[in-house]
Amino acid sequence: MKINNQIKAVAFAGVTIFSSLANAAENPGAKSPKQGIWRGEFVISETHIPFNFEYNAKDKEHPVLTLLNGSRRDDFKVTKLSGDSIFVKMNTYDAALVANVESDGKITGEYRSLVPGFRGSSLPFSAEYGKDYRFVEKGKEQPTKHNLSGKWDLQVLSKAKMPDNVALLKQEGNKLTGVIMSTVGDSRELEGVVQGDEFVLSHFSGPNPRVYKGKINDDGSISGVISSGIYDNTKFEGSKNEQAALPDPYKLTHLKEGYSKLDFTLPDLNGNPVSLSDDKYKGKVVIVEIVGTWCPNCTDQTAFLSPWFKANKARGVEAIAIGFEQKDDLEYAKYTLGTLKKKYGIEYDILFGGIADKKVASDKLPALNRMMAFPTTILIDRKGDVRQIHTGYTGEVTGQYFKDYVAKWNKDLDELLAEPVPATFTSLNKNSEVKGSK
Q1: Signal sequence span per UniProt (predicted)?
Q2: Looking at the domain that runs over 150-240, which CATH code has it been given?
Q3: C or N: which end of the chain has fewer Cβ atoms within 10 Å?
């Protein structure tokens, strides 16, 4: 495949990453993708993972590629390199689509990790213009007697024992959409098709692409395989159950016996140490969010928390994001977490915790029984006591689950903010607008 060799590795604050380069002037006759709908396809061994996107270049200086997944839309800036090549950085995810526009109008390239030192982290893909289907062309659908709409108990079969997942599926004719929820978060919106006794769903919105291939068994149960980008295949089994439920996310992670507070000292993006014992946080309600820019549920949670914080910061609340990244390097984290800050307009402190590893996160936060998931969200009251720990995040695609989460979030924060500032902290906040309610 042709990949323009002007995609160079450059040094950025001591970290080697692929440059997104300034827009280069097009050579006469250089090709650009056609505007409109496209169908792409990743190939992993014998597995094909289709995805759909739109290319919009009405603003020639700022072309945009929009990944489509059901009702979800994710926009990414397209950088035009010299010749016929393009570079599409996956926003906060340190990866990109790097591709050429071929003589026949098709796009060929690869999904490439930009994390310095990562090897073998690339997936080839090709895309054709004007195709709006995902798995099956219109008119080629196969009849099916099954309707998968509803709630499903889904067991993911792994070497380690895992809690059951819950799948929420909606089938209209042959079209199938849905989401799979687990203790760590949700799959984001899946889109696919039912064909006879088989079904298939896929998703690609920036992080690794995934495909779920399954069979509908004679007893109405389902079984199949999940293929996730660069990673191994995982088997699953499921049965329809309207009472299917996940473990309580407020009880999975908790403080160890004898602890009532959280304690840490970690660097901010300028290398300055920050601790919960700093005067800034005393007498305030504090939200601590444990995240990673590589984690889609983390960015979805950040997209929720950032505007909430802006609207409520005058009420006596602070927030801290602790990022665990794909390299244990502050300069690299300054780049990745800085990108997150800019993308979502974050106005609260962002600290660097270290390498993206649950054991490392557990070691950095020893008061917790364990770090089970990114993200994990911790609410701390005005006295500095931990009052709530929530594992994972379920986004808007989960419907009522998300609405319930938001309702509880606002109720719990209102109650914490209504509590009085301890007298020992009042003087520290005399110049701050600390209120119990709006």
Answers
A1: 1-24
A2: 2.40.128.120
A3: C
The set of residues, in sequence order, having a beta carbon less than 8 Å from that of 164 and lying 6+ positions away, is 153, 154, 155, 156, 244, 246
Q: Which of 239, 389, 382, 409 is nearest to 316 (CA)?
A: 382
82 three-state secondary structure: coil
Stretch (H or E) spanning 214:
strand 210-216
Residue 30, classified by CB atoms within 10 Å of its CB into exposed (0-12), middle (13-18) or buried (19+), is middle
CB 100 within 8 A of CB 110: no
Place of tokens 């490439």: 112
Type of residue found at 423: A
CA distance 20 to 304: 27
Are residues 200 and 136 in contact, defined by beta-carbon separation less than 8 angstroms? no
Distance CA 345, CA 289 (A): 16
Cα separations in angstroms, 400 against 147, 257, 335, 368: 21, 34, 36, 29
Is the whole-model pTM more than 0.85?
A: yes
Residues 105-159: pLDDT tens digits?
A: 999 999 999 998 876 568 899 999 999 999 999 999 999 989 999 999 999 887 6
Tokens coding 434? 């600390």
Question: Which structure tokens are listed for 289?
Answer: 């969010």
For 99-112, the pLDDT digits (tens) are 999 999 999 999 99
Asked whether the beta carbons of 189 and 397 are under 8 A apart, the reply is yes
Helix, coil or strand: residue 98: strand
If DSSP codes are grouped into helix, strand and coil, which group holds residue 111? strand
Q: CATH code for 265-429?
A: 3.40.30.10
Question: Containing H/E element for 300?
Answer: helix 296-312
Q: Longest C-alpha distance within the chain, in Å?
A: 73
Taking alpha carbons only, the member of 150, 141, 140, 172 closest to residue 220 is 150
User: May I ask the CATH architecture of the domain 9-129?
Assistant: Beta Barrel (2.40)
Q: For residue 117, which amino acid is it?
A: G
DSSP letter assigned to residue 142:
P
R_g over Cα of the chain: 23
The answer to whether the beta carbons of residues 395 and 402 sit under 8 Å apart is yes
Residues of the chain with CATH 3.40.30.10: 265-429
Instruction: Give the residue range(s) of CATH 2.40.128.120 domains in the chain.
Output: 150-240
Alpha helix positions (H), 99-230: none
